[in-house]
Amino acid sequence: MLDESALPMPMPKLAPTLRSVFLCLTALAAVLGAAQAEDTTTASADLVARGRSLATAADCAACHTAPHGGMPFAGGYAIDTPLGQIFSTNITPSKTGGIGDYSEEEFAHAVRDGVAKDGSHLYPAMPYTAYAKITDADMKALYAYFMNEVKPNDHKPQQTELPFPFSVRASMAAWNLLFLDKTRFQPNPAKPAEWNRGAYLAEALTHCATCHTPRNGLMAEDGSQPLAGGAVGPWFAPNITSDKIAGIGGWSDDELTQYLKTGNVAGKAQAAGPMAEAIEQSLQHLPDDDIKAIVRYLRDVPPIASAGKQARDTFGEPSTEIEVALRGLPTHAPNENGFHVFSGSCASCHQPEGQGNQHYPSLFNNTATGGDRPDNLIATILYGLHRNVGENVAFMPAFGPDASYTDRLSDKDIADVSNYVLANYGNPVIKVSATDVAVIREGGEKPLIVRLAPLAAPAATAGAVVVVALIAWLLLRRRRPHPARA
Ligand code: HEC
Ligand code: HEC
Ligand code: HEC
């Protein structure tokens, strides 16, 4: 029912039919007016709230807010990539520093296609290949959130300057042609709603594949091995397919849920590095139903096996009393230095037999020591671990470049202590050399495209010389009298 007193103008005296027509028209005008107001001026509170939760799930803040008290979304976070440092931009609605003059369409073009308002191509350090799956309705909500709730900030973050040939942003157009799939997320009608919610969250928003899917030599995700494990700089995002040995097929639903919400499952795994960031900034804030949906989806990811024969969380489990007794006498004889570094730098927290206590995790039954790669063990020693979840802070000091001078360990010390931990508590087949540690210290193994980069400048120069020679030769040929015409 229409309440006449709520109408914007006094009711003129009219015949009953005319009056109802007038009422209808006024109501229509009010509705249209409201709809227009939502489009142009302020978006509805619901839309903005939805945009806020989408931005949390998509973890926009992880990269667009600089660490240690950076202004929200004002950019400047340096992302270490194998190509060099890439700085995130200011995505607050400031017209001078940020994206204040982006239209909704331009915003969507940047987030899903990787092309900024000025037409320049973004580097895929901005995970647009995953965001390409975000639906139009959700892009609308994200835009409404950034334009209406995020505080404008005029900060101008440092510009990205990659070395040649990566400085040529236009080359990303060719990369996109090869590797950017612009298909929006399509629900699978054969699957239940919860699975589809999980698939959308995992594939589009929380972008698990950005880290957990291996990349090819051109740094694009290898679509034939979804979630089979990939390097993230010095860290390694393990296989999280449903394979019982190589993946997380052997984890219970509760364990997966606890890991995604807190980053710690005693006797199994702790989240460090980029996974700690994803949990701290995004996953811990997701509603329980969303985590449940992601777990449901993970259960269904086709298993991809590896050469390993034993699940990475099952190493070192003392199964018999004799074994427990033996653990009291770790085999340090061939690795004296490893034993000394362990006793001096690790045992105070992880305990002399590596068994941990209620505050510190055990080093056996630990995915960082039982995997078929030592990356996360080495990276944790080098960079430490820091993860805020709710009121809890998980903290392990760094022993690499950021450590105080007295705590700093050399590549050889880190290799020795890693070998000590692996031999006694983890996967004893894995051996670490000082060179392996140096590679992780330098940010991890470089992909093919980066290893070839030093050749790019000479190749381009050589190419230019060939082209100049070719043109000169053609010109000379023209000038010379043609034999047939002579
Ligand atoms: C993993 C890091 C990362 C995440 C997560 C991320 N971004 Fe970005 N984003 C970047 C980087 C880095 C750039 C700049 C890339 C470049 O310079 O080529 C960028 C650029 C942009 C741009 C272009 C801005 C301009 O100045 O023209 C927009 C818009 C943007 N991001 C929005 C978002 C939104 C919205 C989200 C969340 C849905 C998001 N980003 C999540 C790293 C990230
Ligand atoms: C920014 C990169 C990144 C993103 C995004 C990411 N992960 Fe991870 N993930 C990692 C890394 C690195 C590790 C290893 C952490 C460690 O052991 O300290 C990891 C570890 C894990 C583990 C534990 C595996 C083990 O054996 O210890 C699970 C489970 C997991 N991630 C699930 C997910 C899911 C599900 C998503 C998406 C919702 C996701 N991750 C998104 C980088 C990432
Ligand atoms: C001051 C206490 C402390 C010291 C010293 C310490 N750690 Fe830790 N370590 C921790 C804490 C805390 C965690 C993470 C617990 C959590 O995530 O809840 C951790 C986690 C780990 C992990 C799991 C990382 C992952 O990515 O899954 C490994 C492996 C590890 N530590 C090895 C070592 C080694 C080797 C040393 C000695 C070089 C060492 N730690 C020294 C406190 C310590």
SSE layout and pairings?
Elements: H1 16-40, H2 45-57, H3 60-64, E1 78-81, E2 84-87, H4 104-113, H5 128-131, H6 136-148, H7 171-179, H8 193-205, H9 208-212, E3 230-232, E4 235-237, H10 253-262, E5 264-265, E6 269-270, H11 273-281, H12 288-299, H13 321-327, H14 336-350, H15 367-370, H16 375-383, E7 385-389, E8 392-396, H17 411-424, H18 434-441, H19 448-479
Antiparallel strand pairs: 1-2, 3-4, 5-6, 7-8
Helix pairs in contact: 2-6, 8-12, 10-12, 14-17, 17-18
The structure holds heme C (3 copies).
Residues 263-264, 269-270, 272, 345-346, 348-350, 360-361, 363, 366, 368-369, 376-377, 380-381, 385, 394-397, 399, 417, 421 line the site of one heme C (HEC).
